[in-house]
Amino acid sequence: MNWTSVEHFFAMGGYGAYVWGAYGVTAVVLALEVFSLRARRRRARAQIDRT
Amino acid sequence: MSATSQSSGFTLFRYAAPHVFYPLAGRLLPWFAALAAVLAAIGLYVGFFVAPTDAQQGESYRIIFIHVPAAWMAMFLYVTMAFWAGAGLVFNTRLSSMMAAATAPTGALMAFIALWTGALWGRPTWGAYWVWDARLTSTLILLFLYLGFIALQAAIDDSRRADKAAGVLALVGVVNVPIIYFSVQWWNTLHQGASIRPGGATMAAPMLAAMLVMVFAFWMYSIAAVLARVRAVLLEREKRSAWARDVVQ
Q1: pLDDT of B77
Q2: Where are the domains of chain B?
Q3: Assembly ipTM
Q4: Helix (H, G, I), strand (E, B), or coil: what is residue B52?
Q5: B104 in Cβ contact with B74 (< 8 Å)
Q6: In angstroms, what CA-CA distances link B98 with A13, B83, B150, B160, B215?
Q7: pTM here?
Q8: What does the alpha-carbon distance between residue B115 and residue B132 come to, in Å, rounded to a whole number?
């Protein structure tokens, strides 16, 4: 095990801002893609319902 | 054309029919999404809890577990996008062009993630978020190629003409992919060389394992995202067809 405590884990040996900045933005961007795909699918289905 | 090639061609093109492909993609999608989630969980566990601290870079190297997968997928998705665009131009199959259009946004996203995570890795390692280095610059060009493809496709109302114009752009841009890949060999660069090359890798086994598992996780995610998007594109473009109405019922 690399980490002795939760704080130790989040500190990432002093590189916390870089590591979590990279992982955080990646997670947000992927979540946004999933969200926008669902919205696009809903719009496409709604368009067919009206025609 | 011989009888056999005709029949195999027929079965292949059968899946290219929108009313056949739409439900097929829908059935495959949850499997790829589930695989992506499971692989990401394993990869992140190994990456953060099994892989040791790097002797030179400390903990900052752990960005590699998303940086390399995103960079590889950005290149790989571009090649598949160009392949679909080329198939669409040659065979005039609508689904091929729709696959190309569905691949571009996920590819652009992967290029963005590669650049973003690279910047946050470069700062503690090189002392700079960005340098005009061959690999970084060619990856930025890759992002612009994706964005140009998306913009060109969106700018032309007639979807068939949009597919043709964007398809040509995708094919021309494919020349950038080998430039990215070999940039670290062709030019003097700050970017480190290939993590994996014929004859072995340059890192410890658990680091390599976590990175490869994350590559597969990103790969499965990309397939799921592209399948989800191509389903939406199919509904948008075929909204007046009988099969689309049946699907929505």
Answers
A1: 98
A2: 22-248
A3: 0.94
A4: coil
A5: no
A6: 46, 12, 12, 10, 25
A7: 0.92
A8: 12
